Amino acid sequence: MTTPACGSTLLVARPVARPAVLTASWTFSSANLSVPQARHAIRAQLADWDLHHACEFAELLVSELVTNAVAHARGLVRLSVSAVGGRLRCEVEDASPCLPRARHARDDEECSRGLCLVQALSSGWGSTPTGGGKVVWFELPVPAAVDV
To answer: What positions does the domain Histidine kinase/HSP90-like ATPase occupy (predicted)?
Structure first.
């Protein structure tokens, strides 16, 4: 009769696949020129990540958020984008502490429609105060066929 060895341990480990996280960011001056630069940057980055299908909405919504930052903030504007787990998240950070709110423009107003557009076309959006300003963000779904 044999007795099992005392203190023996069998450890079985299996790696868990984590979704890849893709990130990029840019900093622009708060000048009107930064809006087309931001549109170009997001379009080029999404093409590089092979996320062409998200490009049209992302470019439009980034344009709206950067336009708001240019209009209401001073200093630098930072655009960040990340793709992970079936979603694309874009963030625009500026130095203004005033949090944005979506409001309905009157028929005779030329502005104040941007955040309603962001709300309608994104899967979610919001704003977060920071120590020196705020971050305004939106998310778009990335189809499951795309492995990011």
So the answer is: 32-138
